[in-house]
Amino acid sequence: MRVLVVGAGGVGSAATGIAARRDFYSRFVVADYDLSRAERTVEAVADDRFVAARVDASSAEAVAALCRAHDITHVLNAVDPRFVLPVFEGALAAGADYLDMAMSLSRPHASDPYRQTGVKLGDEQFEAAPAWESAGRLALVGIGVEPGLSDVFARYAADHLFSRIDEVGIRDGGNLVVEGYEFAPSFSVWTTIEECLNPPVIFEKDRGWYTAEPLSEPETFDFPGGIGPVECVHVEHEEVLLIPRWVDAGRVTFKYGLGREFIDVLRTLHKLGLDSTKPVRVGNAEVSPRDVVAAVLPDPATLGDKMKGKTCAGTLVTGLGKDGTPRSVYLYHLVDNEWSMREYGSQAVVWQTAVNPIVALELLAAGTWSGTGVLGPEAFDAVPFLDKLIEYGTPWEIREQ
Amino acid sequence: MRVLVVGAGGVGSAATGIAARRDFYSRFVVADYDLSRAERTVEAVADDRFVAARVDASSAEAVAALCRAHDITHVLNAVDPRFVLPVFEGALAAGADYLDMAMSLSRPHASDPYRQTGVKLGDEQFEAAPAWESAGRLALVGIGVEPGLSDVFARYAADHLFSRIDEVGIRDGGNLVVEGYEFAPSFSVWTTIEECLNPPVIFEKDRGWYTAEPLSEPETFDFPGGIGPVECVHVEHEEVLLIPRWVDAGRVTFKYGLGREFIDVLRTLHKLGLDSTKPVRVGNAEVSPRDVVAAVLPDPATLGDKMKGKTCAGTLVTGLGKDGTPRSVYLYHLVDNEWSMREYGSQAVVWQTAVNPIVALELLAAGTWSGTGVLGPEAFDAVPFLDKLIEYGTPWEIREQ
């Protein structure tokens, strides 16, 4: 296996650090638009299987050329979701398999955005499935932590815990705080605004996919690991589009534990139009208000050593157990920031995202997982993946509700 | 009397429209940095006493030169408070009297900003009082509605209603809504942020001036005219600096009826640093976050025809009445936006600000009001001013509490 990671930001660098401890590949190319960033990531692992390169992720041709130059067999896309399609297309053009952690972006319904879906997350990738199948190549989409591990949990529940699933509800929350800042998000605020203010998508078996108001249906979910109750709201997320394709469930939702304070901040930014990406004129400059919000807040990638707390990703499944009686379980994965900083020098949220595609690559290298076309994580047997996580030293758990 | 209005924005234009119906002056020059804006204001009144001019309000020399060119006797400053000092200095240099509606800006105490005052509102103007006195010229500062009419009310209460004043509390609120916008302030958001997030100043007779936390001591005040209860908080305002100089009161405060929603918006902007005027780098541009907030919101000066509701400015006075028994009265002035739009084509808040300096100019022209030095509205007899307001068709009222 010869891997190309596109993007040497937080997640790409963490994935590189995790991969450096494994031996399932012979070559690992780390590419970024900023070559010096890729070089720093490669220098940090000090391992001659690793090579830095420069790439323009907005160009499928550039991605394909880099694949060919290094005989790449697997492309791991670790850049901003705006570049999903060119990296995805570049991999196929070069005859490589492909993995990503976020899917092609949605576009809201033109006239009824808070009730009907428009172009859904991943639609543009699933449209290309016949081309991937006929080329005999695999695109494993949404294989970070959420989507990713959360989808694996859903498949595990369907195979081993339930005879009937009424609802799969992803619930993500944490208690990370950044010391010394009045307000400092633990994840890219640009992306958080994008996913939280897009119309959230919900799946129901007899209705199909539909949308709701942003930040709607608040509920308080009690997270494990000492995190405790956090206010969660509907958010647009890939699991809702992926899980129903392979797992039989009455309803699929994603609720994000933003907490009351962050929800209020997002509502205010939206009310004032400060979430907008459309440039406004300010003096002689033209700037996007959302970029200004990102510029005034501290960069979360640089805050790992000032953070304290844990992040939790998990899947709440409700239905009938194997014995036909009502059952509800929360399958989850916790990362303590202190642990991930000490062990890998990576912030918890970033590390928790990055470990999953490396586990998946190892299963693909061994042939434990295989397939062609455009497939989600729940298209594969969950057990070897969950076993591998334990082997990587980062266990998952089950809580009966 | 030959008047120069500096600034043809909302207030300057409204003042021009109000003055056009009066005959106490022979010349009225309307000047703006943008000559075309001044020309539009002059064209709207179609009266040959009015002339448009261009001026740079940041230059005392430019203001003085324009005064000399038109033999100006009185300068009315209607620009942003950042330009108070050059307009104030330019008027004195040219031997003209001066009026403004906001005073020179404050600077917080360097080490203890939320308990002690630093440079206070108007300090830099009062320091120049000896120069105005020796030149025999008058600077009548803070003669809009608040400060302005609110100060006149305090003087009226001291002269005619009370034998002892325990507290003068300015209370400003309204129920203006802008149709078709989720969030649209009815007054300049830049100035609102400035006054609401600066440390508010409070006066107590035995303690002097001191400061508090922004937006502190929320109270619900029941406004008249059908407005009803609105949440009010401490805000930095000129009255607190002016009233104690001429009126004997135990305590002076200013509380602004921002309402819960606006208070939350201001708190969020502050928490994120979006209230800052310090430029941040965004791509290749450098912008001040507060300017971006102003740029994404609709311009309140253009929204008069979409607004509905009333604005109320008033002074709550508590103490002992002339008969020595406890008394509490609210002296107030209401403007209905529908009335001000129909009668003058001006939005209510802007019109309510603009009428007061025109009344004051008329009293100065008649010699009813006279003086030298730097004086607040409460330095003059309140009765002729309040009578004149009624003559202008915009009555004030008293409510016993």
TrEMBL record, chains A, B:
Q: Does the keyword Oxidoreductase apply?
A: no
Entry keyword annotation includes Cell wall biogenesis/degradation: no
Cite a single GO MF annotation.
Answer: ATP binding
Q: Which residues form the Saccharopine dehydrogenase-like C-terminal domain?
A: 144-393
- Domain Saccharopine dehydrogenase NADP binding stretches: 3-139
| Record key words, sorted | ATP-binding, Nucleotide-binding
User: InterPro entries from the entry?
Assistant: NAD(P)-bd_dom_sf, Sacchrp_dh-like_C, Sacchrp_dh_NADP-bd
The leader peptide range reads none
Q: Out of the domains of life, which is the source?
A: Bacteria
Q: What is this protein's name? A: ATP-binding protein
